[in-house]
Design goal:
alpha+beta; 2 domains; 5-stranded antiparallel β-sheet; two-stranded antiparallel ribbon; disordered N terminus
Amino acid sequence: METAGDGSRPAQGQACNTMARVALGLSLFAFIPPLGIAAIVLGHVAESRIQSSAEANGNRVARAALWVAYLQLALVSVVAVLLWGLFGSIGEGFRRDALVQRVLRENDEQRTLDPESAQEAEVTAKSLVYQMIAIEDEMRRYGEGAVYGCQVNQLLTTGMKDMTEAEKRGLAARVANSPYIFEISRCNPRTEGEVKPGYILTAVPRAPRMPDDSAVFCADQTGLVLQTRSGTSVDCLKSGQPTP
């Protein structure tokens, strides 16, 4: 006597065969990762059920689906790795391009420094002001006409007497890379035809590179360096406090 279970076996076998064919169809598009994963899952399920079903005969189809899916996914992985390396090399070369570097530096100059970096920039700017004062003193003492230098570039080119050329270049680079603007004004004024050696040296934070309330530094031929955190270089000269 034939039981109800016996009648369901052909249907189960047909379902396994259909699952294997679906897995094979999906495997043809396994280069699309979601479809490839679906093909592998269906292929393994179909293969497992076919092996336990006497009515199913799609084991070769399921096995073919698995081979195709795995091979395509492996090929996609290799291509992805190669393209990643290629684009990485292109990107690195792009970043090293002189024009790109210039654009990146210009964009970087528009970003405000974080508090820690801004504090370091202030300390560096104050140190540069003291170095320029020392150079001014030497130029007045040993230079022609016993007057002070009136251009920042002139100070950087002259440097201290015991400075090497490399040290002068290093000083110039620190000034150029500083988020401060250094200027010399009221240099060696004339009164009634007579030169009265003197100068005003200022270091003003460059906006927006430096945050609000950054220190403004100023000094004159006396060598006293003043600073203020609220105002301009004019305010520094009028009401600035001696630097600590």
